[in-house]
Amino acid sequence: MAITPPANRLWWKEPIHGVELGWIVIAFLWGLFMFFFMIAWHFIGDQNLSTETYRVKPAAYEEKVAAWAEQYQKIGADGEPVEVEGTPVVAPPEGGDVYILARLWEFWPVVELKKGVKYRIHISSVDWQHGFSLQPVNMNISVHPGYEHVINLTPTETGEFGIVCNEYCGIGHHTMTGLIRVVE
Amino acid sequence: MASIDATAAGSGVVNAPYRMCRFTGLKVDQAAETLIKVHAVTAVIFLALGGLMGLGVALTRWPAVQILPPEWFYLVLTGHGANVLLFWIIFFEMAVLFFASAILLGSRLAAPKVAWLGYILMLVGALMANYAVLRGDSTVMFTSYVPMQASHWFYLSLIVFAVGALISVMVFFATLVVAKNENTYDGSVPLVTFGAITAAIIAVFTLASGAIILIPTWLWSLGLITEIDSLMYKVVWWGMGHSSQQINVSAHVAIWYAIAAMVLGAKPLSEKVSRMAFLMYILFLQLASAHHLLAEPGMSASWKIVNTSYMMYLAVLGSMIHGLTVPGAIEAAQRRNGFTRGAFEWLTKAPWGNPAFSGMFLSLVMFGFIGGISGVILGTEQLNVLMHNTLYVPGHFHGTVVAGTTLAFMAMTWLVVPLIFRRDIIWPTLAKWQPYLFGIGAGGISLFMMGAGTLGVPRRHWDISLADAAHRAVEFPAAAYLMMGLNGLFAILAALGGLVFIVTVVASILAGPKLDGPDAKMVFPLHDASRQVSEYGSEGTLKLPGTIILVGIFFAAFVLYYFVNWKYLSELWLFN
């Protein structure tokens, strides 16, 4: 029994049951397949999270994002800056750098992207850890203070997409959202 | 030399008081017995507290109910994690370690006073953690990611708890040495003890990781260190956080084998294979920290792939092996017990009315199908981005830790009460239904949280309607709301199962029929020793058609679900 010492003192010399051996081989091969499939997806797949990361001081990142937002601030037909609920809308040049700042409790600013264009999206936090959860696409990435993560992102559909924070960040966590617009 | 050794051993042996168990024939050391009782009772108290908090969390996340205000919700969620994931499980695991060493080896417990010191430290730590959380200034979640800061009491409490647990683990190792030196058993240790050794070795690694990260974090909370790097914290913290779940896996797999042996007389198909599978855990489970870093900046893809796969899925292989050998051992035993018709008579005629067996088998099935498969999907480098930090994550680990570990520990408790407390189960009907109530509830919350997670619902979130949000850009689909409601309903079911468990166990301990008399019989009997399974296990002597079919279904589900998720991933926006 499993609660008594093995009846056969030389238990390691017992032959292995055929069913067990067969299952070990299948499970091992399946494990190998899953392992190599992760590697293969880097070559055949279009969804591999970038590892490009820079150390950045939160204050420096905040300044960088503010300067960038001012440069590419979207101006409406009336000559006024376009805003959504008080947050400026920024329309970066096609294929350029995009900066998103996570802080208590918003993702700033609102960005307007073009469908089918690849952007370099920079994400970092200036206070605590946050979670960048793009909905309803359902892409979920962690955001750390002090680390500037650069993701090459190509939107494949148009519309308004929300960012929800999915890393607990204090009492206002459930109010932390952001917005990405994708246009043709 | 031999004669000197013999004399030394003879004079060195401590004559610890013990009794012989009438039901199992095991020699029960009384110091170990008392410690098992105390740890089991303490564990159940923290289960009650943490379970109640869990019900509060589930009812708050049910949008139509939303029972707690946000500050209480986040506070209670922090307490829920600490009380059930740490305190309930680790107190119970210490009882399992004392059982697997002193009792199964028929040995005295090494240094019972030191074991008491370990217990007291753990208790002080657990109470201090609850104090810190209930003060309201440590609402940082169980993970306490920096730079969010808790009260220094919070970090100190976890350090004190970990030190206590480490001391108890050392007493376990010392007991193994005592048993070996005093020749209390013949040959190799039993498989269940081997599993417990696995759990204890992983525990040492886990508690060391905890110390490495929590001590500096504690100093930081006191203002003695200026900064803790958030990424470094996550890597090392999860060396404790995830690896501690691997203690649970080892412990509950050992319990599966123990219950199968005690209730059905099951014997491992092959000692070699089952022990190898445990060895895989020791060698590879510690890499699991990476599961929490797949969506992080700063880690290379090769680091992620090697670590998240536990080095080519070798630890997953260990679990998949147990997934065959545990039902295989049960089928083999049942066939020897006379249930040989068809592929499944061994299963349909199994003692489903015995809560130790039904709890164990439900735990086995749900751990594999719900917790296991979802864990591999979550831990796949690229697929992680689909569910990272969504409710899918709690869905996964309620499948492993609640439907798996907690249910297995509850099943074991139905044996601990008659065998260690020597009190029979006072209300057998309630006990009989308990595993189904709790198991279906736990399975339901796991599945519905996973479902909501695939729809993007975030974890640890008070209000998915985003009523007060900066931008109400996200409208979660009606299906997500339905899932959250169902999650609430099944949480009520699980809570009922938990309540039945606690009330029946406590009442049995206090007032159950005494089992000391020479004619006393257990209401849920152990396997009849006269029908003991004789020799089997060598190649070719045994057919296990039922197990092969079950494992085939499991494998098909696994492969199918794996590729479905890659299909989802390929439809995402492009990123690299």
Characterise the protein shown here:
The complex is a heterodimer of chains A (184) and B (576). Chain A is α+β, with helices and mostly antiparallel strands. Chain A is 23% helix and 35% strand. Chain A folds into 2 domains: 14-44; 53-183, Cupredoxins -  blue copper proteins (Immunoglobulin-like). The mean pLDDT of chain A is 95. Chain B has helices spanning 2-12, 30-61, 70-103, 112-135, 152-181, 191-221, 230-241, 243-264, 271-284, 301-308, 310-336, 345-348, 355-378, 384-387, 392-419, 428-454, 478-511, 545-570, and strands at residues 18-20, 27-29, 574-575. Chain B has 18 helices and 3 strands. In chain B, helix 6 packs antiparallel against helix 8 (243-264), helix 13 (355-378) packs parallel to helix 18 and helix 15 packs parallel to helix 17 (478-511). At the A-B interface, helix 1, strand 8, strand 9, strand 10 and strand 11 of A face helix 3, helix 8, helix 9, helix 11 and helix 14 of B. Strand 10 of chain A pairs antiparallel with strand 3 (574-575) of chain B, so a sheet runs across the interface.
Which homologous superfamily in CATH is the superfamily of the largest domain in chain A? Cupredoxins -  blue copper proteins
What letter string, H or E per element, gives the SSE order of chain A? HEHEEEEEEEEEEE
Strand order of the largest sheet of chain B: 1-2
The assigned CATH architecture of the largest domain in chain A is: Sandwich
Low-pLDDT runs of chain B: 1-11, 535-540
Describe the global form of chain A: elongated
What is the percent of helical residues of chain A? 10-25%
The shape of chain B is: globular
Average residue pLDDT of chain A: 95
Name the largest protein-protein interface in this structure: A-B, 95 and 111 residues
How many domains is the backbone of chain A divided into?
A: 2
| Widest β-sheet, arrangement of strands of chain A | 2-3-6-12-11-8-9
Specify the structural class of chain B. mainly alpha
Largest sheet of chain A: 7 strands, mixed
Indicate the proportion of strand residues of chain B: under 5%
- Determine the mean pLDDT of chain B: 92
Q: Structural class of the helix and strand makeup of chain A? A: alpha+beta
Which band does the percent of strand residues of chain A land in?
25-35%
Helix content of chain B: 55-70%
